[in-house]
Amino acid sequence: MAEASSVMQSITFAAWRDGTPCSSGAARRHYVTLAELLVRLGSFGLGLTWKARIDDTQHIDDTQHTVFAEMERASVGSGIGTLELLALAAPHLQAVDAVFWGYADGDLVVILREVDSTSWDVCTANEWVLCEIRRHYPDASPIPSGGWDT
After folding, report:
1. H/E element holding 53?
2. Measured distance CA(83)–CA(106) in Å, rounded
3. pTM for this one?
4. CB 64 within 8 A of CB 96
5. 94: phi > 0 → left, psi -120 to 50 → alpha, else beta; which?
6. Which residue of 68, 77, 112, 132 could cross-link 100, Cys pair, CB 3.0 to 4.6 Å?
C-alpha cells in the first residue's frame, strides 16, 4: 500500500451506477452506499475511527432516521471504529447529505462526503486510497483545489 503524501486531494464520482442487465435486458441501477465505500478502503480503513454528520431532515423512513442518529451519537467523543460504523451503515442505507471524517492516531486521514444522494467526494492524502477509488469508480474526477472545505 502506498504511503500518504502530505497534500490532501479530493475526487468526486457519481453515486448511482449502472449495473448488470436484469432478465428484461435493462441495466440495474446501483447506489454506492457508505458500507460499500468503507469496504473499498480495505486494510487502510480498518484501524480508523470516525466522526459523522448526517443531514437526515429529508428522510421519511423512521428506521433510517434512528440509525443515522445512532451513527452520529456513536461518533461523538473519541469516535466510532470502522467495523462498528460498517455494522450500523448496513448495505442498504442511503443518506442525502453526510460527511464522515476518518482519523488514524488522532490525525484526519480521509473524508467521505455524500452529496445530495447523487455523488460521493473522497478527500485524502493517501495515494493508494485515491487509486483504489478510481479503479472501482472510473468516472472519479479531481475536485479543484479550494473547491471543498475540509
Report:
1. strand 49-55
2. 18
3. 0.85
4. no
5. beta
6. 112
